[in-house]
Specification:
- By secondary structure, the protein is α/β, with parallel strands linked by helices.
- Helix content is about 40%, strand content about 15%.
- The radius of gyration is 27 Å and the shape is globular.
- The termini are far apart.
Amino acid sequence: MLSKSNFLLGCDCPVKLKYFKLGYPALNNPNSFLEFFADGGFMVEALARALFDDGVWVVPLDDETPEQATARLMAVPGDGVWFEPTFVVEDMLVRVDILQRKGDVLRLIEVKAKSFDSSETETPYRGERGGILGDWREYLLDISFQTNVLELAYPKMRVEPELCLVDTSKTCREEAIFNKVELVTDKDPGSTGPRAVYTGDVAALRGQHFLGFLNVRNEVDELIAEVRSKSNSLKRIAIDPSVALEPPLGNKCRDCEYRNIGSLRNGFADCWGALAAGDPHIVDLFKSGLLADAAGNSKEGLNWLIKNGISKLVEIPPRIIDQNKATGKRQIRQLECTKSGAEWVDPNLKAELEACKYPLHFVDFETSRLAVPYHKDMQPYEQIAFQFSCHTILRPGDTELRHAEWINVDDAFPSFKFADALRDAVGDEGTIFVWSNFEQSTLRDIRRQMTSYNHADKNIAAWIEAIVPDRKDGGRVQDLLELCRAHYCHPKMGGSLSIKYVLPAIWGSNEDLWRDPWFSKYFRESLDGALDPYSALKGLILDAEQANIAAGQGQELAVEAVRDGIGAMRSYQEMMYGLSRNNAKHRDAVKKMLLQYCELDTAAMVIIWKHWTSRLAAN
């Protein structure tokens, strides 16, 4: 059977569908409840369903399959609306979000938390030249697959496919905000995810919602032949996943969920065969997809390497790297470091760091966006800043590392209080170190919100305007990621500039940091030296009383450690608006995990800074 999710997986890579059907272990197995908060999809669906108050859930009887229950309900003559009807035709299965029948027309509505701005365009999926845009293609393939199945099921009916999207041009009023969506412990009938129910005034919602319903019949007609052809080929894989396939090897393989090196069933190894052995592999080269081949053909380098039996990064010929470009220079540097096994610290980095004025403030923000806004008068997906951590070194040679932090736990718009607390932490002097330009863009966003919401504190607005430019442009911000890109490379960074790769590379190779009083609390011994500090973060187990409370609300008994920014966002949303939002002890545990993670993010920057300064001083 080829389901819609199978179809989309196969469109991404048919071999992934093969591995999925064969039960290969995948690296990304997300917590379904936290996934609920990832893009707000279930909440958007709750609002969309509320607009159809005559809608009927398709709930199978004890002896029925979902598709049989659908057929029973739709056999009743007349118009109607059904939520989650299921159709199985020619070994293809779809479950439709909302289906409305009026006369001989079937209105197929696919609800997505994808955003668009109706004030700019009514066809956000079309480019300037009229073609379908790449980042919309999956959504349109999705609804085209559903349309095809529905037309096969009801050949005498006319199917009108629509995408229900989030219109960010609209401001949300009282009846279209988050607290009007209630989370319940049971699931949508036939669903594998959480359930959200709209509890507000439906009549008022019709005039206040931010949803846009876009007819995509033309786009479906454009894609339908491709979808039918693709469905036929993917059905053969779904029915018999043992079928032999030629894997489409390329730079996308680097992040494949079936690149499970520690497993006996490693899809990456199966696809690449003898060429899987490179460690590090050619796909681990910085921006490997931009390599040219030996003849200078742009972006053909990986194919050339594969054809010539080269899989080890260290065997990449330098002549196929364009060293006149910044990307090529970085690639060459990674290649040299990998061959030598030694890190590279550019002597010019010393002048860059010495130009940074004290106090040195190492800062990290955590933010959140939800399709369904937290508060009225916000727009969908409008950002809030809910947490920061700041480590400060007051003066050269200081033996004290100061730490300040702030997190919002109140059901109120937090960004302006966030800015006030940040000013208290970093003051009006010194350099603000960040990793990427995210903190600067967040502060600019807060500054815009101050104008939009007529925030009274003009001083804090002026303060943001003064600090947010780069240090070299008269502001106070120094991006450590950019310094890393230009002046540092470690063979164990794997071609990545993410702090999640830079920190472990440095930490594992500098034992002095393990004993440093500033950082010793992050040391955990491992078989090969020291555990990555992010991996060493510990979660919390609720005691018996707390566990009983949590279990009664359908939650896990353990509160997992937060280890990345996406996890922080989802954990915050669950803490504030999830099923345990009224459980003070559970909320406090999640708060501790968030504070622990954000503190490490800024400590990581101090670790990297201290490593660089010590290496430069020794040379």
